[in-house]
Write a structure and sequence with these properties.
single chain; 112 residues; alpha/beta; globular; disordered C terminus
């Protein structure tokens, strides 16, 4: 079965930008885990661009949390950009908006 999630990695770049498209759902989360965890040891900042992410379920949300924790423990910043209103609402309902660094442009450093 083909994964409903597609990733495009802009590399080499600082930060590494990973564009996600499709659906981040049960059965496709391993694709994201494999790519991001491969980048973490050698990267100070990873930006996930969710512009073309159409849908995310609880497994997808759980994977983002797992990646965030792994990145933080390795001294890497994991940021999210371009969340759709629906995905932003999911983050708001679960009180995760404040956990993730989110900015509108991958070239803009977060404040603080």
């Amino acid at each position: 079965m083909t994964s409903p999630l597609k990733l495009t990695v802009e590399q080499p770049a600082n930060p590494v930008v990973i564009r996600c498209s499709g659906k981040l759902v049960a059965g496709s989360t391993d694709v994201l885990w494999t790519e991001v965890s491969r980048q973490i040891p050698d990267t100070a900042r990873i930006v996930l661009d969710l512009t073309d992410l159409a849908y995310m379920d609880s497994r997808g949300l759980g994977m983002l949390i797992r990646l965030f924790v792994s990145a933080k423990s390795a001294g890497c910043d994991l940021e999210l950009i371009n969340l759709s209103p629906r995905i932003r609402e999911l983050f708001g309902v679960t009180n995760l908006l404040s956990v993730f660094a989110m900015c509108g442009d991958p070239g803009v450093m977060p404040r603080g």
